[in-house]
Amino acid sequence: MTNTNDNPAVILTMNKLLTIAIPTYNRAELLDKQLAWLDHAIKGFESECEILVSDNCSTDNTQEVIKKWQQNLHNFNFQINKHPENLGVMRNIMYCLNSATTI
Questions:
Q1: Residues of the chain whose pLDDT is less than 50?
Q2: CA 76, CA 59: separation in Å to the nearest integer?
């Protein structure tokens, strides 16, 4: 008997094809532009993509931008994380890589 966890076809159906991970810190305006672009660029691929925004304890209006786009991109798996303290750029990037569900 074959274990379904060993079957690559089964694994692929459980995960997204593409994770778009955006580490950010105090770049609300740029994040807004990036998410607006993504809204158009990945239309039609909602079931195959996930968006992950990792906020590295921003002090600007990054959270408001995230909330706006979380509503606008409701058809996507849209994950957000706000770190309670600034981890530094590399640890924020590593968080994104470790949080992606794509293979």
A1: 1-13
A2: 26
Measure the CA–CA gap between 17 and 26, rounded to whole angstroms. 29
For residue 9, being part of any structural domain is answered with no
CA 15 and chain centroid, separation: 14
What is the per-residue pLDDT across 30-39, written as a single tens digit (0 to 9) for each? 999 999 999 9
Q: Tell me, what DSSP letter sits at residue 78?
A: E
CA-to-CA distance for 70 and 55, rounded, in angstroms?
14
Phi, psi values for residue 33, rounded to 5°: -65, -40
3-class SS of residue 11: helix
- Predicted structure pTM score: 0.80
Number of domains in the chain: 1
Is 28 among the domain residues? Answer: no
Dist. CA 18–CA 100, nearest whole Å: 9
Q: What is the pLDDT of residues 82-95, one digit of tens each?
A: 999 999 999 999 99
- Domain annotation covers residue 30: no
